[in-house]
Amino acid sequence: MSINFVSIIAKPKITITTNPFLVSSPLLFFSNKTKTKPSILTAFSSMSYDKELAAAKKAASLAARLCQKVQKAILQSDVQSKSDKSPVTVADYGSQALVSYVLQRELPSELFSLVAEEDSEDLRKDGAQETQERITKLVNDILASDGSYSDSILSTDDVVKAIDCGKSEGGSRGRHWVLDPIDGTKGFLRGDQYAIALALLDEGTVVLGVLACPNLPITSIAGGGSHHSLPGEVGCLFFSVAGGGTYMHSLDSSSAVKVQVSSIDNPEEASFFESYEAAHSMHDLSSSIAKKLGVKAPPVRIDSQAKYGALSRGDGVIYLRFPHKGYREKIWDHAAGYIVVAEAGGVVTDAAGNPLDFSKGRYLDLDTGIIVTNQKLMPSLLKAVRESIEEKISSL
Ligand SMILES: Nc1ncnc2c1ncn2[C@@H]1O[C@H](COP(=O)(O)O)[C@@H](OP(=O)(O)O)[C@H]1O
Ligand SMILES: [Mg+2]
Ligand SMILES: [Mg+2]
Ligand SMILES: [Mg+2]
Predict the structure, then answer these.
(1) Which CATH architecture has domain 267-395?
(2) Which residues take part in binding Mg(2+) (predicted)?
(3) 92 has catalytic annotation
(4) With bands split at pLDDT 50, 70 and 90, how would you rate the model's confidence at 107?
(5) Most ligand 1 atoms within 8 A of CB, residue of 99, 179, 280 to mutate
(6) What is the CB-side half-sphere exposure of residue 235 using CA atoms within 13 A?
(7) How many angstroms is it from 82 CA to the middle of ligand 1?
(8) ipTM for this prediction
């Protein structure tokens, strides 16, 4: 296998030190006169998720470290094919085990429910003992390098169990963590973009999101075109809590800056993101939409929810995703990216303009595709999407 490695030399450039989300949240105000119930958003934005945020950031950062280590020197035996023919690597499993374990250690008093992409079925098959051991060593090495939980060394059984905690069905009641341990596994294998995407659902609403993007440049990738490897300092961590905005810092530092989506309202100046993999999204449909809107720049094709992260800081202003017929989107492919963009002032809907509903279990039920942009461009984007879809249908 030939792999193009991106150099991973992340030195923090950002100097503004803020402590977002440590500011005490406003108290809820109930008016006895009007008996008005607070809106769901007001209720969530008044809640504190400080502990959960700190735990999620720690978990995602350690998982990113594990993935970086594997990506630097991946072995043929580290990659397997799942029953749906999609790839999975020891880093996907290791990342899921780490995040699951760290969240449980950091939040011992909370009920733990995790909706995550991977499970241990293939790892329990005959002949998989070596892979189990490799994953376990990776997890233990990362924990040891961090100095956390030095009291406990995980066994292969602990690691398999931590992976299998991710079997929750999620839903509209209670709290559920939502994890994609490596989003963009194909990008990861190419040496390109990938993300560790972790979100928290509370009563069916995404209230917190952390997106670690180990290969995403710290500075803008605007106008980057379709790139395999990217120069300069890389490694970003985006995080958001409902009502608190979106922040980003380098994976090597904790000095965060607040980010905002682009305020461009002229589609001619807009650029758009889409999947690198043509099998994941209909590129012909996005190009027809871009043409209708008058977008001049070529699409920026990158893997994973790094697209949401890049859009949240204004590197591009539109993200279009139109899976081929029959594909069902999973909540872990969008939950963290969704809140990162929404809290940076962006809008995420399905192709018909409906909000995404993360409360229905492991899948998102949606109309045709997912579109993301800023508030100003959404009406014209929706119109272009509608027209292009109609034209595509009538041409069939
Ligand atoms: N046929 C398909 N259509 C749409 N998405 C697909 C797909 N096959 C796989 N995917 C999803 O696309 C994700 C990657 O998205 P992107 O194209 O933005 O990089 C994959 O996440 P994983 O890599 O976590 O499996 C996978 O869930
Ligand atoms: Mg996958
Ligand atoms: Mg994914
Ligand atoms: Mg994945």
Answers:
(1) 3-Layer(aba) Sandwich (3.40)
(2) 117, 180, 182-183, 333
(3) yes
(4) very high
(5) 280
(6) 23
(7) 13
(8) 0.99
Q: How far apart are CA 68 and CA 372, in angstroms?
A: 28
Report the nearest atom of ligand 1 relative to the CA of 277: 17
Query: Could you name the CATH architecture of 40-259?
Result: 2-Layer Sandwich (3.30)
List, in sequence order, every residue forming a beta bridge with 350; answer none if it has no partner.
370
Which residues surround ligand 1 with Cβ inside 6 Å?
Answer: 86, 117, 180, 182-185, 187, 275, 277, 279-280, 303-304, 323-324, 327, 330, 333
Tell me how far CA of residue 213 lies from CA of 85, 267, 302, in angstroms: 24, 27, 12
Q: How many residues does the chain have?
A: 396
| Nearest in space to 247 (alpha carbons), one of 221, 211, 273, 223 | 211
Find the helix or strand (DSSP H, E) in which 320 lies: strand 318-321
Residue-wise pLDDT tens digits, 329-378: 999 999 999 999 999 999 999 999 999 999 999 999 998 999 999 999 99
Tens digits of residue pLDDT in 158-209:
999 999 999 999 999 999 999 999 999 999 999 999 999 999 999 999 999 9
Q: Looking at the chain, which residues constitute the CATH 3.30.540.10 domain(s)?
A: 40-259
> Two tokens at 276?
């690198």
Phi, psi of 392 (to 5 degrees): -65, -40
Query: Residue 265's CB: how many other CB atoms inside 10 A?
Result: 13
